[in-house]
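Can anyone check this?
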Amino acid sequence: MNRPTNRPPRAARRQARRGVVLPQPLPYTQRNWRLFWIGLGVIGLGYIFLGIPPVNGFISMTVAPLLLVAGYCVILPLALLAKEKKDKGMESQ
């Protein structure tokens, strides 16, 4: 006789005992993905600017490294760490 219970299925209990962690969905929103792709675009543009002749020109010596640093050190970390803003109305309740 099958009685309804609140217990998880046997396979899930067995995995929990073994310490198996089930995959969780990624916590990233559309804003995170947009920032990520912008960062990759800025990095790609920086590498393109590195190859523009003359090699000792303003673009390849100044602009390209600034774009690369901004992409790697600012935009990509922001894309990974940005969180959804919470509503102010929800905090007071």
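Reply from J.R.: I decoded it. The two ends are 45 Å apart (CA to CA).
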